[in-house]
Design a protein that fits this description.
CATH architecture of the largest domain in chain B: 3-Layer(aba) Sandwich
Oligomer: heterodimer
Number of domains of chain A: 2
CATH class of the largest domain in chain A: Mainly Beta
Number of helices of chain B: 10
Number of strands of chain B: 8
CATH superfamily of the largest domain in chain A: Porin
Number of domains of chain B: 2
Number of strands of chain A: 16
Radius of gyration of chain A: 29 Å
Strand order of the largest sheet of chain B: 2-1-3-4
Strand order of the largest sheet of chain A: 1-2-3-4-5-6-7-8-9-10-11-12-13-14-15-16
CATH superfamily of the largest domain in chain B: Nitrogenase molybdenum iron protein domain
Largest interface: A-B, 72 and 65 residues
Shape of chain A: globular
Distance between the termini of chain A: 43 Å
Largest sheet of chain B: 4 strands, parallel
Shape of chain B: globular
C-alpha cells in the first residue's frame, strides 16, 4: 500500500513536467531556459527526497519512535521543498506503518533482527598427553569447535537486545543474551541478562575475535577457561569525569554466582560481583594505551563459606597508522591475574599472566606470538608455562585461516608440541564488537 | 521551622537557576558530531558559529575501517546531534560507539540522530540478490554519495532543517546560512563544470568504487576498478584483465584514494601508460583541503591536469 502510494507520487512528479511543457505554448509564453532548468532541478530534488524516504522506510530497523529522524518530511527545509500533498501522503503512509501490526510482508521483515552465524573449525596435530581437567582440555584432531548464532536488534527507543547462542558439536549454550538500556539518564548504560563479565580483556572476547586459536593458560587455569566468567545478572557502566583526553570508565556487575570452576552458587545469596575500571588515552592519532584493573568475588565449589577473589591488571598498546590502517597495525597486550581461592586445607594464592604481540604484515596477513605462565587455581604450587607463534590469513573480512604452533610445559613435567589450524567464517550481519 | 528553611533554600536555588540558565542557554552552542569530515564540513557551512562540530573519522582514513576508540565516546557522550553517512558505511564501527555513549539524544531513531543518505541521490543500488560473493557490497546503495555538489546542497539543506528542529530560535539563521551556501555552491559549480567540460566522456579507472556520484555529475566514465570486487584486494588475474580493458578502451587515468597502496595502480599505470592520481574522497584528505569547496577545487585541479597530460 505504502509503496503503491509512493509510486503514484513518483509517476505524478515525472509526468508533471510533460504536462507543463504542453501547457506552456497554449499560454503563449516561451519557456525561459534557466527557469526551466531551475524547475527541473527542483523536481529532481523532490524525486530524490522521495527516493530517500522509500530507502529509509525499507532500511528501518527500529519501530517508529515519537520523533523518527528517518522521515525527512518533518524537517522544515524539506517541508519547503515537498508539496503539501506529498507531505501529507508520506506522513499518512508512515502513520499507517504501526497499523500493519503482525501482518506479514516486507514491513514485518524489516523489523527482523540482524542474524549471523560464525563457524569456528579447528584441526590439531602433535601430541598432548596432558590429562583432561576442568580447565585444561587438549583439542581433538578435528573439531567443529563452535557455531555461534547471533540475533541483534534495537528493541525500542530505549534499549537494544543481543543474543549469541553457541552450538558445539554436541550441546547448545547461551553464550550471551542481554538487553542494553541505552537511554538511561546521567550517562549510565545498563545490561540485564547473561553476559561475559568485564573482568580484563580476554574474558570479554568471543572466540572468533581472539587473535589465537585458543585462550591463554592463565584464562584456562584461573578464569574458567573458554567460557570464562559468563553468568546471568546485571551490569551498569558509566564514563567518569577525567582530565581532558583521558577516557575513564567504571563497570559494576552482579551475577548469580555460577561460572565454570571459578564460582559456584550453592544458595541464592551466593552471588558474585565483578568490578572493572578502564583508562584509555590516545598517545598520538595512531597510538593508544588502554589500561584496566579488575576485581571479581564469588563463592566456590567448596561451599557457601568458601570465597574466591580474583584481581586483574590488563594493558594494551595499539598502533595503527590512519593513512595505512588497512595494511599495518600492532597490538601488544598483557594481563596479570591473581587468584585467592579459599579451600581446605589452605587457601591457594595463584598467579598467572600472558604477554602477546600481533603485527599486521599486509592487508591480509597477521603474525603474532604469545608467552604464557600460570599457576593452577586449585594447587598454586603447580605452574604451567608455554608459548605460541600464530600466523593468520584473511581472504576477506568475513573469513580467516589461522595456524598456531604451541609449546606447553605442564607442571607435571609433560611437554606438548602442537600445531593448530583454524578456519573462521562469518555469515550474515554480525554486529561490530566494542574496541 | 525546618520546613521553612528548606523552602528558603529551594527558593534561593530556583532564583539562582532562573538567573543563570537563560545566560547559559544563550551561550551554549549545539554540539554536533559527524561520522566523516565531509558531513562536518557541510554542517559547519549551515551551522556557522551556532554549532561546534567535530568528525570522528579523518579525511585521509578509510571510512569503512575506523577503530571504535573509547576517546570517540568522550565526543559522543556530549553530542546534541550525530550525523552519519549511512548506507552501512559505518556499520563496522559506529553502532558500538552509539550504544556505549550513554547519550539518549543520539541513539538511532532519536531526534539527535541524522542519517544524511536520506537527502541524497544514491547510485549503485543493487537490484537483484545481494551476496558476499559480490565482495563488501552495500545493499542499500553506494555510500560515497557526497562527491556530487548537488548532493552536497541537498545534504546541507537537510542538516539546516535538522539544526532548526534542535535549536528553533536559530531556525532562520540556519536557513539563511543554507541560502548563502546554496548561492556560493551554484557559483562554484559553474566554474567546476566549465573546467571539466572539455573532458566529458573521458574514461577513468578507480581503485575502489567511491567515485560514481562525482563521475555522474561531471560526465566521466568509470570503466573499471583496481579491486576485483568492493573491499577485496587486487588479484593478479584481475589486474591483467584490467590492463587489457584499459588498453582496449584507451583509458589513461587511474584514481586512487589516499588510504590505498599505490603499488598495484602504479604497475598498471606503467603497463598502460596511464597517470596514477591520488584523489581525495573527503575533506581533510590533505591539510590544505579544509572545506567542501576546496575538496572539489583540489580534485578538479588534479583531474584536469591528468586529462591534459594524457590527451
Amino acid at each position: 500500500m505504502r509503496n503503491r502510494l509512493v509510486s503514484t507520487l513518483l509517476v505524478g512528479l515525472i509526468a508533471f513536467p510533460v504536462f507543463a511543457q504542453q501547457a506552456a505554448p497554449q499560454q503563449g509564453t516561451a519557456p525561459d531556459n534557466s527557469a526551466m532548468e531551475q524547475r527541473m532541478r527542483e523536481l529532481e530534488d523532490r524525486v530524490i527526497a522521495l527516493e530517500g524516504q522509500i530507502r529509509m522506510l525499507k532500511a528501518a530497523q527500529a519501530p517508529p519512535s515519537p520523533s523518527p529522524a528517518a522521515t525527512p518530511a518533518e524537517t522544515p527545509a524539506q517541508a519547503a521543498a515537498v508539496p503539501a500533498e506529498t507531505q501529507a501522503a508520506a506522513l499518512a503512509s508512515t502513520a499507517q506503518e504501526p497499523s500493519l501490526g503482525g501482518a506479514g510482508g516486507s514491513a514485518a521483515k524489516a523489523l527482523n533482527p540482524d542474524i549471523s552465524v560464525i563457524g569456528d573449525f579447528i584441526g590439531a596435530l602433535g601430541g598432548n598427553s596432558q590429562q583432561n581437567t576442568v580447565s585444561l582440555q587438549p583439542i581433538p584432531a578435528f573439531q567443529m569447535h563452535e557455531s555461534e548464532v547471533g540475533f541483534q536488534s534495537i528493541i525500542d527507543p530505549y534499549a537494544r537486545g543481543d543474543f549469541f547462542i553457541s552450538f558445539g558439536e554436541e550441546g547448545v549454550n547461551l553464550e550471551e543474551g542481554y538487553i542494553t538500556f541505552t537511554a538511561l539518564p546521567a550517562g549510565f548504560v545498563a545490561k540485564v541478562g547473561k553476559m561475559r563479565s568485564a573482568f580484563g580483556k580476554v574474558n570479554t572476547m568471543h572466540n572468533h575475535v581472539l587473535p589465537w586459536v585458543e585462550r591463554p593458560l592463565v584464562s584456562n587455569n584461573l578464569v574458567a577457561g573458554e567460557d570464562g566468567i559468563d553468568d546471568a545478572g546485571f551490569s551498569i557502566e558509566r564514563i567518569l569525569p577525567a582530565p581532558k583526553g583521558i577516557f575513564l570508565e567504571a563497570t559494576g556487575q552482579l551475577f548469580r554466582g555460577d561460572s565454570g570452576d571459578v564460582f559456584h552458587s550453592s544458595q541464592r545469596s551466593d552471588v558474585s560481583t565483578v568490578a572493572h575500571l578502564r583508562g584509555y588515552r590516545d598517545i598520538t592519532e595512531s597510538t593508544n594505551l588502554d589500561l584496566g584493573v579488575s576485581y571479581a568475588r564469588g563463592h566456590n565449589d567448596q561451599g557457601t563459606d568458601f570465597l574466591t577473589h580474583l584481581y586483574g591488571v590488563d594493558a594494551s598498546l595499539r598502533w595503527k597508522p590512519l593513512r595505512r590502517s588497512i595494511y599495518h597495525s600492532f597490538v601488544g597486550r598483557s594481563e596479570f591475574i591473581w587468584s585467592d581461592r579459599q579451600q581446605l586445607p589452605t587457601t591457594q594464592k595463584a598467579f598467572g599472566y600472558y604477554a602477546s604481540a600481533d603485527y599486521q604484515l599486509g592487508r591480509r596477513w597477521f603474525l603474532g606470538g604469545r608467552y604464557d605462565h600460570s599457576d593452577r587455581s586449585h594447587d598454586a604450587a603447580l605452574t604451567d608455562k608455554g608459548g605460541s607463534v600464530v600466523l593468520t590469513y584473511w581472504p576477506s573480512e568475513f573469513s580467516q585461516l589461522r595456524g598456531q604452533y604451541r609449546f606447553t610445559h605442564y607442571a607435571n613435567n609433560i611437554d606438548a608440541n602442537e600445531l593448530f589450524v583454524q578456519l573462521i567464517f562469518s555469515l550474515g550481519a554480525h554486529g561490530a564488537h566494542p574496541f | 521551622m525546618l520546613n521553612r528553611s528548606r523552602f528558603a533554600v529551594v527558593l534561593a536555588l530556583v532564583a539562582l537557576g532562573a538567573f543563570f540558565l537563560p545566560n547559559l542557554a544563550e551561550a551554549k552552542k549545539l554540539n554536533v558530531v559527524t561520522a566523516t569530515t565531509d558531513m562536518a564540513a557541510l554542517a559547519q557551512e549551515v551551522g556557522g558559529d551556532r554549532i561546534q562540530v567535530e568528525s570522528i573519522a579523518r579525511g585521509y582514513q578509510d571510512p569503512h575501517f575506523v577503530e571504535a576508540k573509547p576517546s570517540f565516546l568522550l565526543k559522543l557522550r556530549n553530542a546534541d546531534l550525530l550525523i552519519v553517512v549511512g548506507l552501512q558505511l559505518e556499520i563496522g564501527w559506529l553502532p558500538p560507539l552509539i550504544n556505549q555513549s550513554g547519550n539518549p539524544k543520539i541513539q538511532v531513531g532519536a531526534l539527535g540522530y541524522l542519517d544524511a543518505s536520506q537527502f541524497a541521490e544514491i547510485l549503485d543500488i543493487p537490484t537483484g540478490t545481494v551476496t558476499r560473493a559480490m565482495g563488501d557490497v552495500h545493499p542499500l546503495g553506494n555510500p560515497h554519495y557526497w562527491l556530487d555538489p548537488d548532493n552536497g546542497r541537498r545534504i546541507a539543506r537537510g542538516i539546516a532543517g535538522k539544526l532548526g528542529d534542535l535549536d528553533p530560535p536559530n531556525t532562520a539563521y540556519y536557513q539563511q546560512r543554507f541560502q548563502d551556501f546554496d548561492k556560493r555552491l551554484s557559483t562554484a559549480e559553474q566554474k567546476w563544470e566549465a573546467e571539466m567540460k572539455p573532458f566529458r566522456g573521458r574514461k577513468v579507472v578507480t581503485y575502489h568504487n567511491s567515485f560514481p556520484n562525482f563521475a555522474k555529475h561531471f560526465g566521466l566514465n568509470v570503466i573499471g576498478y583496481v579491486e576485483p570486487r568492493p573491499g577485496i584486494p587486487p588479484t593478479p588475474s584481475h589486474t591483467i584483465e584490467l590492463i587489457g580493458l584499459m588498453k582496449r578502451e584507451n583509458c589513461k587515468v587511474i584514481l586512487v584514494e589516499p588510504y590505498f597502496d599505490l603499488k598495484t595502480p602504479q604497475s598498471i599505470g606503467r603497463e598502460t601508460g596511464s597517470q596514477v592520481v591520488q584523489y581525495l574522497p573527503s575533506v581533510g584528505g590533505e591539510k590544505q583541503v579544509t572545506d567542501y569547496f576546496q575538496l572539489f577545487d583540489y580534485n578538479i585541479d588534479l583531474l584536469t591536469k591528468a586529462f591534459q597530460a594524457t590527451q
